[in-house]
Amino acid sequence: MGVSIKGTVLIEGHEITVTNPEKVLWPKAGITKLEYLQKLTILAPYLLHYCKNRYLTTIRFPNGIEGKSFYQKAVPKPTPSFVHTATLQGITYVNLDSLPTLIWLGNLACLEFHSSFHYTTDDLPAEWIVDLDPSVEVEPRIMHAALLVGEALSTMGIESIPKTSGATGIQIVIPIQHGQYTFEQLRLVGHFLGNYLTKKYPDLFTIERLKKNRGNLIYVDYLQHWQGKTMSAPYTPRARTCATVSTPLRWEELQNNCRIEDFTLHTIEQRLAEYGDLIQRIEPQSLEAVLSILH
């Protein structure tokens, strides 16, 4: 029988039990649970910004990324008193709004954090995100594809920022004023954008929903952005071999064909020190011009 090691840490006045701190969660990246919790502390100010007051789904890997995993929507039990929750459609979710809550989830081997597109206070989108989803596991054209999406949005007078999913795709984030648009309006603009891209670059993009019918084309997923659905939050770690982190990028990095695998738990601290949160540099965008054409 293995020996279980545990201790407690005091965070913002709350005692949190840490079990098996030496357990290796990312074997090839050499990251133990204790190191992971230290990385989460660094990520917290950024990750919490995109998770607080939203409905959180996590993916748990009790024995590290090479073991079995499961999605966790409902708040784990027993639940500490400092954990705030929010209920949607009968499910009580974690509201990831504090460092103690984040470390508690990290100790439970929650290695990925996926947040809803809207706040717990209403059903209106908090931002607009277009997901570029490759149909093949290794897609060398993904950065070029994201550049073309950014250019298309720019011609519409819309400024955007790309971020790695941390897996295989790129997501294009467009900040908007909360409460200004509905999900239906964003889906309308998303369909227009996807249609434009597939017609202009038919050998690169598709809006075909069924993966088996896409061939090697990159799917412009504008449908995922909807009430109750989730996406990998900016700055969430991912359960990938390299311990990647969903990371906002500069457009110049895409022009230099950067690699998703370069943005990891090992590199994120230096990057945040250098650039901060790139998404926050963009003002909320107006979509009125394109919506006026579509209505």
TrEMBL record:
Superkingdom, taxonomy of origin: Bacteria
This protein's record includes keyword Nucleus: no
Domain DNA ligase D polymerase: 32-278
Cross-referenced InterPro entries: LigD_pol_dom, NHEJ_LigD
Its EC number(s): 6.5.1.1
Keywords: Ligase
Name listed for the protein in its UniProt record: Non-homologous end-joining DNA ligase
Biological source species: Paenibacillus baimaensis
